[in-house]
Amino acid sequence: MSTPIPVTLITGASSGIGEALARQLAAEEKQVLVLVARRQEKLAALASELSTAHGVKVEVIGLDLEKPGSAAALMAEVGQRGFVVDTLINNAGFGINDRFADMPLDRVQGMMQLNMVTLTELCHAVLPSMRARKGGRIMNIASVAAFQACPRFAVYGATKSYVLLFSEALAAEEGRNGIKVTAVCPGATETAFHDVAGNRGTFAAKIMDSADTVARSGMKALNSGRRMIVTGLMNKPLPFLVRISPRFIVTWFAGLLVAR
Ligand SMILES: NC(=O)c1ccc[n+]([C@@H]2O[C@H](COP(=O)([O-])OP(=O)(O)OC[C@H]3O[C@@H](n4cnc5c(N)ncnc54)[C@H](OP(=O)(O)O)[C@@H]3O)[C@@H](O)[C@H]2O)c1
User: Fold this and answer.
1) Which protein residues touch ligand 1 with a CB less than 6 Å away?
2) Pocket test for ligand 1, best of 94, 153, 162, 195 (most atoms within 8 A of CB)
3) What is the Cα–Cα distance from 62 to 72, expressed in whole angstroms?
4) How many domains does one find in the chain?
5) By the 8 A CB rule, do 7 and 83 touch?
6) Hey, what's the torsion of the CAs at 29, 224, 145, 23, to 10 degrees?
7) Which residues of 136-158 are buried (b: 16+ CB within 10 A; e: fewer)?
8) CATH number for the domain including 94?
9) Does the annotation mark 156 as catalytic?
10) Which structural domain range is residue 182 located in?
11) Which tens digit of pLDDT belongs to each residue from 136-169?
12) Distance in angstroms between the alpha carbons of the first and the last residue of the chain
């Protein structure tokens, strides 16, 4: 049996921050890329563009990561193609701007499955080989929504709090094994996220960073071994402000930013 080829696996690479990460990694790192999302045709077009422009091998896997068992299916496919994950970027995710009781339960379940469960299962699947090789990188995309309760994004905010705390704990556990883990916390970013979430027109969606900026800051933080990064200059003071302010005021203010 031949030695598995180390790859960078990016979930949610068909648009937004995931696509920006794929573009940067193809240009700068030359490692084989495996791009995952549901829209396989978008992934295939991106793969062809990146391999032509940069001479890198880019493979695509079309998969719905909201489905229970999808992380295991993805890892089986990666293994069958002769790959081992050297860098895992858990980026796929979505939110819904609405009152919790008014959200369809199946969308809530899908959000929790994608944002938390699949992300966790993928981390669990890649760590044994990373430990064996004494190296590897994991980037989990959280959000500034992780730092406080978010009315109208109640479940989304809570899933991102999970991603942040889970990732920071993982970084503390795995540093000694040579594995870098970074939670990236973007503020509002100009992507299709806001169309999917029904968030256009809110105050939060008026001041946005670009997906490129978020991707660049995230990769810099990952490579320098930072456990957490808040991207965008305006967002940097947020964790500190949240810590020193009364919780009910912070919650009220977070709701105000996404009121419709
Ligand atoms: N944009 C923001 O303001 C912002 C702020 C903070 C954090 N974030 C986080 O950043 C990450 C990327 O979002 P984005 O802003 O780049 O939004 P986006 O442009 O909507 O990208 C979301 C990506 O996730 C994929 N995805 C969604 N559901 C999926 C599923 N069931 N199975 C597989 N892939 C799925 C989408 O691909 P398909 O539709 O092709 O499946 C797409 O590639 C998310 O985790 C989001 O929570 C975004």
Assistant:
1) 12-18, 37-39, 64-66, 91-95, 114, 141, 143, 186, 188-189, 191-193, 196, 211
2) 94
3) 14
4) 1
5) yes
6) -10
7) bbbbbbbbbbbbbbbbbbbbbbb
8) 3.40.50.720
9) yes
10) 5-257
11) 999 999 999 999 999 999 999 999 999 999 999 9
12) 57
Cα(5)–Cα(64) distance, integer angstroms: 24
The single-letter code of the amino acid at 107 is R
What confidence score (pLDDT) does residue 1 get?
65
What are the backbone angles phi and psi of residue 192, rounded to the nearest 5°? -70, -10
Cα distance between residue 217 and residue 210, in whole Å: 11
Q: At which residue do the structure tokens 């302010």 appear?
A: 245
Give the residues of the chain that fall short of pLDDT 70.
1
